[in-house]
Design brief:
Distance between the termini: 34 Å
Low-confidence stretches: none
Strand content: 5-15%
Order of helices and strands: HHHHEEH
Shape: globular
Structural class: alpha+beta
Largest sheet: 2 strands, antiparallel
Mean pLDDT: 86
Length: about 120
């Protein structure tokens, strides 16, 4: 790579990094707006999406987000109280519980995803 190419790459990286706070504010606002009926926060939406995409335990979500399991437990507890997520026995390991979306949780996550996708499109 030439010095010019390296410089252009660094400029693009800086521009991308500058967009991250703007994108986070936009996504947070859109999730709040689209999920208003469900009262979803960005983290709750992310948890629903993670479960919908195959994360079956709080530990898996914690590893995915690179946070402690305690952070995830609080989010899952709130989603469970609102009947958007349920903990159910793991058919492969009776000592464990796995996470599953309820019909309401699936509907809420799909509604927000659709709103975000349409807005970006």
């Amino acid at each position: 790579m030439t010095t010019s190419q390296v410089s252009q790459g660094a400029d693009r990286a800086q521009q991308t990094l500058a967009l991250l706070p703007v994108l986070r504010r936009w996504v947070t606002a859109r999730v709040h707006w689209a999920g208003a009926d469900a009262g979803l926060s960005l983290r709750q939406y992310a948890a629903l999406t993670g479960i919908r995409n195959g994360a079956s335990s709080p530990g898996e979500l914690a590893r995915l987000w690179q946070v402690t399991p305690a952070v995830i437990t609080g989010i899952i507890d709130r989603l469970e109280r609102r009947e958007l997520v349920r903990r159910e026995p793991d058919p492969n390991d009776r000592r464990r519980l796995r996470l599953a979306l309820t019909d309401a949780g699936l509907a809420a996550s799909t509604l927000v995803e659709r709103a975000l996708t349409e807005e970006l499109a």
